[in-house]
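Hello,

Following up on my earlier ticket. Below are the two sequence lines again, exactly as submitted.
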Amino acid sequence: MNLSSFLIMRHEILLLAIALLLLVAEIFISKNKKGSIVHLAIFLFGIHTVIGFLPLGETSILFGGMFQTNNLIHFFKNVLNIGVFILLLQSADWIQEKIVEQEKGTEFFVLLFFSLLGMYFMISSGDFLMFYLGLELSTLPAAALAAYETSKRISSEAGIKLILSAALASGVSLFGISLLYATSGSIYFNEIIEVISLNNLTILGFILFFTGLSFKISLVPFHFWTADVYEGAPINVSSYLSVISKGAATFILMILLFTVFKSLMPVWENIVYVVALATMFIGNLFALRQQNMKRFLAFSSIAQAGFILLGLIAGDQLGTATVVYFVMIYIFSNLAAFGVVQAISLKTGKETMDDYNGLYRTNPNLSLIMMLALFSLAGIPPIAGFFGKIFLFTAAASKGYYLLVFLAVVNVTISLYYYLLVIRAMFIRQNENPIPYFKNKLYMRLGLLITVIGILVLGLYSPLYDYIYELSSVFN
Amino acid sequence: MDILSLFVTVPVLTILALVFAKGLKQARIVAMVGSLIQLGMAINLIFAYFKERAINDSIMVFTKDYMWFEQFNIHYTVGVDGISVALLILTSIVVLAGVFISWTMEDLPKEFFISLLVLSSGVYGFFISLDLFTMFVFYEIAVIPMYLLIGIWGSGPKEYSAMKLTLMLMGASAVLLVGILGIYFNSNADGGALTFNILEISQVNIPFEAQKLFFPLTFIGFAVLGALFPFHTWSPDGHASAPTAVSMLHAGVLMKLGGYGVFRVAMFLLPLGAIDWSWFFIILSATGVIYGAFGAIKQNDLKYINAYSSVSHLGMVLFALLMLNKTSWNGAIMQSLSHGFMTALFFALIGMIYSRTHTRDITKLGGLLKVIPFISVIYVIAGLASLGLPGFSGFVAEMNIFVGAFQHEDMFHRVATIISVSAIVVTAVYILRVVGIMLMGPIKNSEFLDMSDATWFEKTGILLLLIPIIGMGVAPLWLSDMIMASLQPFIKGVL
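Thanks for your patience. The regenerated structure is below:
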């Protein structure tokens, strides 16, 4: 371990240091000032995020091939960092008001950071062992977080549901990995690439492995846990699961499909095609009737995962770039939507769509942010989501999947319907006792502001996409 | 900033100014000033256009090109020819008239004018775009504010109508997107780079198989906005529920995007597809023409009458475009303009009548000519223009369309043309029926006696729309020449 490898692993090491530091710092904070751990955590993580942006230098492989990184992976870790940073800002008030008094403030951050650390290792993995460790490290703390509001039965239920389905998924995944090991004789990605061939055992191994990751991304038919967990878990945790966790899992899935399983492309093309269609249709159709905003966003995020698969199916540099670009935009859009839900739920405890009736007349700013977020998710120009989505479609069309693109745009129209339902509630419907006007605290406002800037700028500012496209050449 | 991009920039600046405006009085002044500047720019553009045309004979003038997304070769490219100039004028006049008609918008005035201007900036951007991607972006920007405009400020079953309209138009744009991507990925058929640029693609020989596949998608995608039968159902409900200015803008301007897009994208870039598919869409559009006209006869709600009449008139635009010759194309563009002014005027008048009588049911109205003579007389004039009386814009347009259509000698085109022509007679029936029942006869309700006639802002709005209708009818030549001269590159493809 020398300095240069420290620089390459700076995300992982810094985050670990911050998490441990917080645990120690708690001891030194006096009892009546426990809330200040929030400031400390946000401050440290902010620094961590900024340091992450320093250029990586050379790309390299550590620990005999277990850990790899390159500019695209590095960039993606930064994207995850920004997402988590926004998430911290949005959850600050909730922690200070509800969690600190239960003396669980520090642990929230520590668990969150460990889970993020797992994601770093997962997307940087160079072999299946590291991948599996990362997957587990990212999932187990998330399950604890889902059950964080111990006063609510539904929250514990969410935690149990998440841990059980995650355990099942990783078991299936592990079985797939072992089959792959059986056929290729290695767990290292770059060795498997050379020996992997189209035979039944490999395909079976791949399918099982794909199933495991599908749980994490909540692709149909492995999406059943999603709505229940999102509904039960604290909103920030739902938001974390739907944004950060899903983003990271999509990213590693993409890397593996484009590198390790490249020669299985004739097989996984068909699988991705079918799963994409099923995910879009089921996610969208179930979202139509949801009343609870968290369940609503859960199904919406299932459908969004289906759209991401359209970029995966392209299987080349264009596909990589569009997927990363979309995930980045999706992080901002979904965080904005969850942020508003969080702000309203914290002040008033209201979480259903009917409660939002007439919101614009009392809270115009929150309504506008929500509208921007939903338009971005629906793909209305000139908001970022439009560009993300249209580029995904372009990637699929570039390989001649016109029918798939057509069905996807049909789904965009379906999804527009339910996004408009929320907008209808906020802007058109009247309410006898609407949610009263309230002012958010600084952190929340900052968290929402960053997402709004992201939603507005990411799409229109084209050099960003060009930059991602350039980075994406590494997997081809 | 070039002369064309200002058409998008000024509405955006007006919107920013509106954000800081307080109350109805400030908001409407800001909106009016912004739209007035737009109108001034549009008039200035005509003169600039003629000056430029004299020395520049390329297809598009005032072109500007900025790189946007390099990887996809997406540009922000603008440029105009005679057709787009004419439509820009239409837009600027209707928007200004719409602002005057909404002079007393009490409920959330600021938001209303902002949505209206977002819509108009989308329309302007659409007409000046020469890049398919940018064009598509502007198309959607123009459509989505309709949801809020109808939903918040509408009347009747507004939630239903707003949702129906938005979903149908967005569904259409989804179909359109597939068509555009299809064109894009075939734009390198001659070995060049993939491009979204309309002028560049028009030079490419896209394979016939691809044209055959993507023409209907592109055509339908745009034509839904142009109320193509059987996808017109959003239009009557949408118009009936929308507030006055929105109906005006929507029927007057937004629906023109459909015809323009069909012409500029589907027919210009996929001419072989157009020839191959024209029979099918001629049947649909001729059905729309006659169906809209008969639909209007049966209605009692003023807005529904006008909405069905729009289906009929815009069906004629699509019908004329499919005739594939210069005369009828000229007629199609003239009809777009004429219908734009006329229908906006109709909706403005209907709004005024409704705000005074609180009903749009013609069976409950009567003898309005005696109490509100100004509004009633204008209504008669608009009606006469609509049924194609010589001296008004409608006559010039329909004359061109049918002269062009009769140039086809085969049986199929003849029958279709005869069916469409007969709609003119039906138009006379429903226009005169309304005039007879609503304006003439006894006053049916004594409350109507205290009604006041049009106020100054209503008169301004009316005059803004009336002048072009008469102007086009009396002196159509300069406009027709300007449009004719721009049709040359289009005709090459289909010969």
